Batch of 2 targets.
Target 1
Amino acid sequence: LISGNSILAALKFDEARGALLYQDVRYLLIRPETLATFQKAVEEKLGAGADALLFTGGFTGGSLSAQRYREVFGLSDEQAVQFMARMGAEIGWGNITITHFDAARGELALMIDSSPFAAAYGKSERGVCHLVRGVFAGLASGIFRRAVVADEDKCVAMGHARCHIVIRVA
Ligand SMILES: [Zn+2]
């Protein structure tokens, strides 16, 4: 049902380019299996070093989106954090809940129910939702104006009921 989804309701289709746009920013739909296969192929080459590459991709997207939508909608720090969580759910990244946000201390924590990244990946000994971890680290780093560390201490891929990500200034 699109009516409860503000992102899909505002999504524009540029038929000539085959482009999907939200607020003039291009997005693409991609199957989680595509990303999970890519992730495993990179891990085969780099081991845990692959995590940082996916994280960096997410970080860039999160930084750009946070900047863009803060400008477009005139959001405060708190509103930007809530907007990104809501948008994450509306673009299918799982049901994201901000569990802790303290701008003064430079702390942000979130919980993800039904992460498509974990579901597509299968079992793992460490967290696999590096894109989400990166997006919110990018957002947080922009708000705190500092480098941050981001840790997924619980992940469905590790056998937990939901994913949990903790971000704090480095
Ligand atoms: Zn996860």
Note: Residues 115, 118, 127-129, 152, 155-157, 163 surround zinc ion (CB under 6 Å).
Target 2
Amino acid sequence: MTDGPASTVGDAGERALIARLSARLAPPPPWVLVDVGDDAAVLDPGRGQVGVVTTDALVEGVHFRRDWTAPDAIGHKALAVNLSDLAAMGAAPRAALLSLALPADLPLGEFDGLLDGFLALARETGTPLVGGNIARSPGPLVLDVTALGAATRRRVLRRAGGRPGDELYVTGRLGAAAAGLRLREAGRAPAGEAERECLDRYERPMARLRFGVAIGRSGTAAAAVDLSDGLADAARQLAAAGSLGVALDAGRVPIHPGAASASPADDGLQLALAGGEDYELLFAVRARRRSRFLAAARRFQTIGITRVGRLLSETGAWLERDGVREPLPEGFSHFEAGRPAGRPWTRNASDI
Ligand SMILES: [Mg+2]
């Protein structure tokens, strides 16, 4: 300890940090029966509901850089990527756990900033923070989040469930987050509203929670996945889970208007397919359920939904351009041999 007020998390110590965090928590919603301060939290699962659990960590130097991204954006993203996985399962969030590994020299102001972003999104989405852990990290800053959700047993959306001929629909417009990253890499300020939106989507992704829950409840989708590693990867995941093939229609992929302009060296379509971190949702839908699915989706007009392809009976992943088939590009993968070195923070972790 040093004399005078602490300026780093190391000066403050674990107990003071936990007290600092706990003091900021809002009163929990009724389904939280035992809150922080006990050895574990206790949740009411809700009548007829099943628990849906997911975890994802953000590691400094792998998923973010502290000199590029403000602390509140890092805190926001740590929760958002987990909420996106709940959304893909059609599950509404019920609670979150946060484990922090902090370098001792992390300024207290940055610790507070991480919580600003995390807790603001937690409030906005009704995801109470009900526990966690704080430890010292001898290296990078790590935010490890577990999110707990709930869904009706028969309405959980899974990656498996697609059949040949199912239509694929994606939310939003793609490539924005990858374009935002390119702006950061180039050290260039965004020019115009579309590019500003790209930077915002990279730093503060919004999980499509209400959309995912609404589609789940509607019972109109056969399968779903979120787009953490790009549309091409998500389409492959849906196909693989059903031992199927997939074809995407290049002319239908909804490209964000900032995706092309932010990075003239990149094809906007390439960013949309393989850029990753858009955290949109991809659904497989039976043709006979199309109109009911679209009716449920139309409640979210500001997000939008686009038919981008279909599942095939024979395996293989294809991009169709003017009637010609070419192999679908790969998405990003950690630990993949031949991954470009030197930019290890470019994409989020794949789900296991
Ligand atoms: Mg996922």
Note: The pocket of magnesium ion is lined by residues 85, 88, 226, 228, 351 (CB under 6 Å).
